[in-house]
Design brief:
Length: 112
Amino acid sequence: QVQLVESGGGLVQAGGSLRLSCAASGRTFSARAMSWFRQAPGKERQFVATISGNTFSTLYADSVKGRFTISRDNVKNTVYLQMNSLKPEDTAVYYCNQGTSWGQGTQVTVSS
């Protein structure tokens, strides 16, 4: 089971930016897709973005397309989520995912 540890969340004003990081353990990191999900209070967890292992292909939810960028560093075993032009509706706990493994989440709060 891979261990995932997120960091980088916080409080930011609307229009601001944050960069989330997710450090992963395990020797197969570079071969596996990594994803970000988020869960707002009272709502189901929803997909945000994913990046493939070796080709670095990306896919985004429509709600974040053009504002968020997912990237990875296969030397550091880390995946990132750069979030720009943040909106209050982006407020949620953000989770890193690889297969059936989940991180503990990091809170992002966007004030209006």
